[in-house]
Amino acid sequence: MPRALVTGITGQDGQYLAELLHQKGYEVFGLVKGQNNPRTVLLQEEFPFVEVVGGDLADLSSLVAALESTQPDEVYNLGAISFVALSFRQPELTANVTGLGVLRMLEAIRMVGGADNNPIRFYQASSSEMFGKVRMTPQNEETPFYPRSPYGVAKVFGHDITVNYRDSYGLFACSGILFNHEGPRRGLEFVTRKITNAVARIKLGLQQELALGSLEPQRDWGFAGDYVQAMWLMLQHDEPQDFVVATGQTHSVREFVELAFRAAGIDDWARYVRQDERFMRPAEVDLLVGDAGKARRLLGWAPTMAFPELVETMVSHDIELEQRKERNRRR
Ligand code: NAP
């Protein structure tokens, strides 16, 4: 039975990946931080097959201990301060966890190593935010980075150190440069889920308006369930390499909002949406669109869910969720 250690298991991707690995017959270990992390209970209820291991990306000794106790074949490093807006408010924490955390995990892998004939394979969750003020469109594995947030800068460090450890020490280390991916499990702080949840609440009369920053940024949005498949495929490939994972289509936040309201049966969406300075970023990424040709050719990966279906799935999930919460509240 192969064994995988997943950091960031309580996050969106961690949950989809845990499910995928379990279906594939893996023993799944999830690194969870904190002494009484409330998300552990939710994790254990929903994914009882996950074995929780304590540890923090800010603490090297805890990562060494986690590797020693779990003896994984594969490590998926999804843990991060991943919310761009928070990275502007807490840049040092972001650099420490999202950037240096990768180095700590690589060092821990170098120390613990895995069996001689079965070295640990490492996946790093890199991000299209590294392209920032884009130098080429669409962006691929050769596109230079120009990050526009402390999050993007920290991810560039994580990416480069992954490549460096592969080159320097021969580690089987891959970096997946994933473009935005969403789904019903996306955290409520992220703009897509903030929109679909607000639309659901407006539809049900529980909320009056939706306050957003700029509606103009364009993103390449895919479904998280498809993207964790690409992570796994990278670690099954013969050679460790970096891959862009994207749909190749781009849509503005405005289009996302419009489609989300329409999915809830609301056509006059503009009357509910208010622009709010507080959600504007000091430096914005205007346009991201990825070229996942290499992942398609070498891994046989392709996205399965189109943009309209993604938005509709998230909206109908949130309508059901809010209805359920209302029923429970009234009981
Ligand atoms: P997410 O939902 O925000 O999850 C982040 C995870 O990191 C959570 O499980 C969190 O744990 C954990 N974490 C935070 N600080 C930690 C620390 N000090 N030590 C260990 N774990 C820590 O993120 P996601 O959307 O699943 O994304 C997964 C990864 O892919 C992230 O690295 C993200 O930056 C990257 N990525 C995401 C996208 C996307 O569109 N979703 C695109 C490109 C790259 P708690 O629950 O305990 O806080």
Short descriptors:
single chain, 331 residues, alpha/beta, Rossmann fold, UDP-galactose 4-epimerase, domain 1, 2 domains, 7-stranded parallel sheet, 11 helices, 15 strands, binds NADP nicotinamide-adenine-dinucleotide phosphate
Characterization of the model:
With 331 residues, this protein is of the alpha/beta class. The chain has two domains: 3-182 and 221-245, Rossmann fold (3-Layer(aba) Sandwich); 191-218 and 250-288 and 305-330, UDP-galactose 4-epimerase, domain 1 (Alpha-Beta Complex). The protein has eleven helices and 15 strands. The strands form five sheets. The protein has a seven-stranded parallel sheet with strand order 3-2-1-4-7-8-13, sandwiched between helices. The protein has a two-stranded antiparallel sheet with strand order 5-6. A two-stranded parallel sheet has the order 9-12. Helix 1 (12-23) packs across helix 8, helix 5 runs parallel beside helix 6 and helix 7 (191-203) packs parallel to helix 9. It is globular, with a radius of gyration of 20 Å. The N and C termini lie far apart (45 Å). NADP nicotinamide-adenine-dinucleotide phosphate is lined by residues 7-8, 10-14, 31, 33, 37, 39, 56-58, 78-82, 97, 125, 127, 178, 180-181, 187. Residues 7-8, 10-14, 31, 33, 37, 39, 56-58, 78-82, 97, 125, 127, 178, 180-181, 187 line the site of NADP nicotinamide-adenine-dinucleotide phosphate.
